[in-house]
Amino acid sequence: MARFILRYSGGAAPEEHADLVNAASNVKVLDRSPKMMLVEASEDDAQKLAGQLPGWSLHPEQQYNIPDTRKRIVNDVEPA
Amino acid sequence: MASTPQRYILAPVQGFRASRDNPREMSLFSSLHRLATTSAVGALSSPLGAGIPMRVVDSIGETKPKLIECLPENLAALRASHPSMRILPVVYYQPALAPRARVRRAMAMAAAAAAPAPAPGLSVQVLSGATGSPAAGVTVVAFTDFASRTGAEGTTDAAGRVTLALGGVTAHIERLYIYPPTDPASGDWPALQENVVLNSGDTIQLLAVDLSFQDCVRHFYGADDLALGAGVTVGVVDSGVALNHPDLTVSGGQNTVTGEDPSLFGDNATEGHGTHVAGIIAARGTPPTGIRGVAPGVTLRSYRVFGQGQLNASNYDIAKAVDAAVSDGCMLLNLSLGSAAGSPPDPALESALTDAHNAGVLVFVANGNDGRQPVGYPASDTFSQAVSAMGRTGTFPDGTEPAGSVAAPFGTDPANFIADFSNIGPETDFTGPGVGVISTLPGGYGVMSGTSMATPAEVGAAARVLSADPSILAMAANADRTAAMIAALAAKTTDLGFDPTFEGKGIITP
Question: Is the pTM of this model over 0.80?
């Protein structure tokens, strides 16, 4: 199981599409916004669902960081 | 250094074909199509001045994408001249071969060595310059060999003490970095000492932050007028903004972290990053008791995408924040975040950034701090305004950490330099002051460096430019407004004398 983003390419997503996602077995809806849904499913199930939803695209969830400028130790000093 | 022409794809703002409802876009793609029939280097006309030399290598069709060749340093000018056009990298795919196994040095060393005896410790104490008391939670990083990043590090305890495993009770330290805590703020400058002998029992005193000090942001953008930026709404997409800070007025926002309360868009109790970013744009304090941002008159909104106590954010939460900020009427967005240098586009964020562009919202994104590496994503997105970090000697006290970021290239004014940590590349649109920046933090004030700081400095400067242009403020929120904003900023940008891959078109000068 992994987390995927479903994003609608128009304005607000049609309500019947959200109903279809909610009703899908093996797909858990974690969050919803006017244009997107965050779902947990196997890749096969997520792709199958996305294929039934015109105007929606499927993307993997991924993480971003705050860019850091702190210097860090890569190699420890060897004991004397 | 002369560069060679690179290939890029020029695509319509949306989809695969130029829209017949957009005569300007149709005309542009038709003229590029005609250029494709010649092999000569032509010049794409620019409403901002001189033409941009390029060769149209191929055209899929009159209204469809073009393959072009042009110098990377001309991309910033191309984006500024034709903002309603996507400039995409040409991507080459490789066979999916299994990677060759390689020995990792650290693991090989660990396997070769018998379990070593615990290293003798070198204990030092750090005192806060702001309070004179022992400073807890300070990160001390001691490099015996900076080039190989060899040394030891640790964090001070409640008594301000830390023990460093440096192999003895005395050591020659090539570089000693000391980073005070930022959430809550310690009120001290981060320190850098070079070529020092450290003895166990030594005490190091940090330098207190003087809020009247002219750092690099105040050097370029210092101003007294609290109305600067009025009429412009700015969204900070970050770790939240401290809502109780006396210098900050947050008009609203949303926490878009999945599973968290949407109303909690204040600081997320990590490093105070979003609060620092917000202060650079919009702080309304008065030195020496407070700090003043670049555009204190803007309407500030906070969109928290980093979970409570978390230092990473999901692309879903970021895209949701961008959508929410667009819907809330923000004109400018600040994204001081990103993936590793040179990461590929993220289609989920790409879609949100395209929607923001089409809704009249300009999104500024930090290039990243990987040290002269390629621009990270989403800064590298065609619709992002990518910002590198520059600094200026004389705008940080002696013995402080920003001194370690001074590096070539230097500008026409030799006091200006591109920070050693800044990522660079043809996607860069602007450079901004981001070395040793004093700003707000939860519980006080502190100093941070990074493209994270350069980006809000340029957002604040952009807000000042737009605030002074009633025709743009009156425009409908659509792609035409975005194009007008980009043109207005291009007209107020100063070339500092760096290569365009370092500074884009330069620094915004309201």
Answer: yes
